[in-house]
Design a protein that fits this description.
Double-stranded beta-helix; 5-stranded antiparallel β-sheet; globular; alpha+beta; 4-stranded antiparallel β-sheet
Length: 245
């Protein structure tokens, strides 16, 4: 979505309209609006709901930190997940503000998988099997999240009611995430994870969003899973992210 006059203030967009678009399309891309500098960013996000306050505050600065002990702050890929998974309450929206985008060929796309579409494409016998699957996730709390929690693979969208998939891929990187899968035999688990990886990346339900500086993206964290492609070593990529409950 672009404004008629470039540089229009985002506050001119009614939040009810934004929410309606997100409900319908899962994520909305806003280009050509005036950047939200400093406190203007969380102020705008408050219009969409209560902000999730992490240890660092509401705004997560996603960029490479050479001293990091967590893979999110590297240039490497981020497997699919949903935000706030390790909390008792997940945020509804994820707000991204791109302050610096890598060059077009440098990678760093954010991957959005529409799990409603994924489920629509999965054969019914497979969905029957998935109904009995629950996964326990474990990670050491080194940055702002961590611990251990369990989630059924299939859930329902808390506000829209339709069925969604809740799945986070294992992380084998700095600050790894381990999965214990109930409802599938040990022998079948590698095949299950490989099949899920293929389904999540299927272009029928997965969109690789290539960032441009100044972009704003607002995504439905309940319906989508998201991840990131790796980006070039020297590429600059800075995204400010806010979770909205
Ligand atoms: Fe995330």
């Amino acid at each position: 979505m672009r404004p008629v006059s470039p540089g229009t203030n985002l506050l001119e967009l009614p939040t009810s309209l934004l929410q309606q678009w997100i409900d319908e399309h899962r994520f909305v891309v806003l280009k050509g609006f005036a950047p939200l500098n400093g406190a203007a960013l969380p102020d705008f996000c408050r219009g969409l709901g209560e902000l999730l306050e992490w240890e660092f505050g509401a705004v997560n600065d996603l960029r490479v930190d050479p001293k990091t002990k967590n893979y999110l702050y590297t240039n490497r890929a981020v497997p699919f997940h949903w935000d706030g998974a390790f909390l008792s309450r997940s945020p509804h929206y994820i707000f991204f503000h791109c302050d610096a985008a890598p060059d077009a060929q440098a990678g760093g796309e954010t991957l959005f998988c529409d799990t409603v579409r994924l489920l629509a494409q999965a054969p019914s016998e497979l969905q029957k099997l998935w109904q009995h699957v629950a996964i326990t996730y474990t990670t050491e709390k080194i940055v702002h999240y961590g611990g251990r929690f369990s989630s059924p693979l299939l859930s329902s969208h808390p506000t829209l009611g339709f069925r969604v998939l809740r799945y986070a891929e294992p992380v084998e990187d700095l600050n790894p995430v381990q999965l214990e899968i109930d409802g599938i035999s040990k022998e079948q688990q590698p095949g299950f994870m490989a099949d899920m990886h293929r389904r999540l990346n299927d272009e029928e339900c997965c969109h690789a969003y290539r960032w441009e500086t100044g972009d704003v993206v607002i995504a439905d964290n309940f319906a989508l899973l998201h991840g990131r492609r790796a980006f070039a070593n020297q590429a600059e990529r800075h995204i400010r992210r806010v979770n909205i409950l």
